Amino acid sequence: MSPRVVFPNKILPYLLLAPQLAITLVFFYWPASQALYQSMLREDPFGLKSQFVWFDNFARVLADPNYLNSVRVTAVFSIATAAVAMVTALLLAVMADKVIRGRGLYRTLMIWPYAVAPAIAGMLWLFLFNPSIGTLAYGLRWLGIAWNPLLDGGDAMVLVVAAASWKQISYNFLFFVAGLQAIPKTLIEAAAIDGAGPTKRFWTIVFPLLAPTTFFLLVVNTVYAFFDTFGIIHAVTGGGPGKATETLVYKVYNDGFVNLILGDSAAQSVILMVIVIALTAIQFRYVEKKVHYG
Amino acid sequence: MATVDLKDVKKIYAGGVEAVKGVSIAIPDKALCVLVGPSGCGKSTLLRMIAGLESISAGTVSIDGKVVNAIGPTERDIAMVFQNYALYPHMKVYDNMAYGLRNRGTPKDEIDKRVRETAKTLELSALLDRRPRELSGGQRQRVAMGRAIVRNPKVFLFDEPLSNLDAKLRGQMRVEIKNLQRALGVTSVYVTHDQLEAMTLADQLVVMNAGLVEQIGDPLDIYEKPASTFVASFIGAPPMNLLALTRGGAGRMPAGSPEEMAAVGHGSAAGSTALASAAPMLTDGSVVPFAPQAAATLGFRPEDADVTHGAEAPGGALAIPAAVEAVEPVGAESFLYCAAAGTRIIVRVHGRATARPGDQLRVVVRAEKLHWFDQAGKRVG
Ligand SMILES: Nc1ncnc2c1ncn2[C@@H]1O[C@H](COP(=O)(O)OP(=O)(O)OP(=O)(O)O)[C@@H](O)[C@H]1O
Ligand SMILES: [Mg+2]
């Protein structure tokens, strides 16, 4: 170990750290503790006085069938979004790896959707699939498919999943392309000589070697589906019809800012915070030190 | 088990690079054919065409008499050892070796038997449960060999398999590969740019240069009768000394001293003037006897030369005046680096060299040890 460098000035290090600490305190710890505090308060209907109720809000939230519905919706939505986004991206990346002519153009075009803001992505999909004005909705009806995301919860879920994963495909695509390029070509050649056809090569060589990338993307996509899809849901369905697309994050917003049930909303956001911390811990534990081969 | 026949094989890459420009080689059954040549001469390209990893632009490749141009690597029944070994990093050694057998639907107990047998011959039995990253370079090399052997293919292909090993291990593995190949009797093609590896391994040596075959044959035949200046300078270490010859214009006096002419048995000093006008000379002007008509380059191997300090030289030999520049003793032999006729020549002498840097002496080569090459670099005589 190299000897430690010791600076004589005792105050300077703290001064240098101060801005960072201030930002973290003001923008994270303060709101977080506010949320925590708020989650243990109950306000009267007119917002005139509030009462400290310990964990009552949590108990009520967790017993609320609407909340449990929201958990279920979030699970379905996240798993579907992550799965669709990753499988499609992998498929496209594998095909892009085979493209020789116009490779750069193809890849550039693939990356563009990532630059579209979530709400706008949602609007695009909404326009395309709106039952009364959507071009593609018209096509679906023409094919004899009863399609109405404004009335049918299942259709609405399909629509938000499509919009959310469409936006994430580009990101996944980039990582998969890089992951594929990192696999030495000689390995594929060795496998071919060892008698493995293209499909077998993919499942026995390429896919296992992509595992670190896939795992990383799984975490990123889950976090994305949990927390970054508010804009899309807000624009496309507003959590409806009924509560068919009301995810946990959307419910926090709905209860807190629309229905003004601040105590419940705060309790929900504290639960979400715990989920984020858990996901981040998993990410650090496994993704940071990835599964390295070679 | 199989012969490999290349007929006028060409490879033009998509970018227009002509990497192989028409190569024909007939590799007999059970032979170890070594492709040797400088970097970029198309050895790997040729090997990869035999493997089916590169398409063949023109000509035919046949294995066991059957043209395989249109057959993919999966169906060619060959095995290849790559320079970087290309072991599957996520599989244990056992699975690396079993992979090819599994793909071909070999029964499980048969796979197990063969993998364990092969592991035993290659002393890998203790390593079967490890992953490639937990192995040393030499062990990885063995696993790569094992993966090739275990399948019992028609042809083995090696692309510089030893180039990532240290010198000592390379020597060991070279012997081992040779023995294994003999024992298994599998036709093999081996690519290297190391001429020592090429000489020691080959049953059939193919010297390549710039996409073309320079010479094919038994390694010692090639060593003794190189077909061109390229082969002469590529095979053998240190390489053959090559000296350019010029034909003196009329009336130009050779710079060689009269007694030298006498020493090489070329008559009197008086006669040499007349002879010199048409006779080939070295660039320093000394006349070279014995040269065939077409000769443009003179060559001799460092081990065929000797040095003499005295004026007297044996008959039937060429004596070139030279100045010693450096002496390199390596134990059993010494190398003298001499300046002569405008170039550097290397002489190998047994044991300790008596010459010192700065000495003026003469390099003596017997006439029958001289090689002659024409203007195009092809062998004459
Ligand atoms: N995929 C490719 N596309 C275009 N040109 C190529 C390709 N692969 C090789 N070449 C060219 O073909 C020529 C022969 O290459 P090759 O790899 O066969 O050389 P080599 O004899 O194996 O050399 P080395 O000893 O360095 O491995 C080189 O000039 C190289 O630049
Ligand atoms: Mg090569």
TrEMBL record, chain A:
Primary localization class, coarse: membrane
GO CC terms in record: plasma membrane
Transmembrane in keyword set: yes
Keyword Lyase: no
Name recorded for this polypeptide: sn-glycerol-3-phosphate transport system permease protein UgpA
Domain (ABC transmembrane type-1): residue spans on this chain: 71-283
Ranges that cross the membrane: 12-32, 75-96, 108-128, 173-193, 205-227, 266-287
Superkingdom, natural source: Bacteria
Oligomer status and interactors: The complex is composed of two ATP-binding proteins (UgpC), two transmembrane proteins (UgpA and UgpE) and a solute-binding protein (UgpB).
From TrEMBL, chain B:
Keyword annotations: ATP-binding, Cell inner membrane, Cell membrane, Membrane, Nucleotide-binding, Sugar transport, Translocase, Transport
Compartment list: Cell inner membrane
Cellular component GO terms, alphabetical: ATP-binding cassette (ABC) transporter complex, substrate-binding subunit-containing
GO biological process, any: glycerol-3-phosphate transmembrane transport
GO molecular function (one): ABC-type transporter activity
Family matches, as InterPro entries: AAA+_ATPase (IPR003593), ABC_transporter-like_ATP-bd (IPR003439), ABC_transporter-like_CS (IPR017871), ABC_transpr_MalK-like (IPR015855), ABC_transpr_MalK/UgpC-like (IPR047641), Mo/tungstate-bd_C_term_dom (IPR008995), NA-bd_OB-fold (IPR012340), P-loop_NTPase (IPR027417)
Pfam families membership: ABC_tran, TOBE_2
Matches recorded under Gene3D superfamilies: 2.40.50.100, Nucleic acid-binding proteins, P-loop containing nucleotide triphosphate hydrolases
Superkingdom of this protein's organism: Bacteria
CDD domains, sorted: ABC_MalK_N
Start and end residues of each ABC transporter domain: 4-235
Membrane topology: Peripheral membrane protein
Keyword Coiled coil applies: no
Family assignment from sequence similarity: Belongs to the ABC transporter superfamily.
Name used for this protein in its record: Sn-glycerol-3-phosphate ABC transporter ATP-binding protein UgpC
